[in-house]
Amino acid sequence: MSTQLMSHRHTQLFIPELVYFEPNALEYPKGQKIHEWAKQQGLPIRITPSHNRITNLPGESELEKYKIAKRTLVVGIRKTLKFDTSKPSAEYALPIATGCMGHCHYCYLQTTLGAKPYIRVYVNMDDILNATQQYIDERAPEITRFEAACTSDPVGLEHITGSLKEVVEFMGRQPLGRLRFVTKYHHVESLLDAKHNKHTRFRFSVNADYVIKNFEPGTSSFQERIDAAGKVAKAGYPLGFIIAPIIWHEGWEEGYAALLHRLKEAVPEESAQDLTFELIQHRFTKTAKRVIELRYPKTKLELDETKRKYKWGRWGQGKYVYPDEQADALREFITEQIFENFPKANIDYFT
Question: Does the 78-274 domain belong in CATH 3.80.30.30?
Answer without folding.
Answer: yes
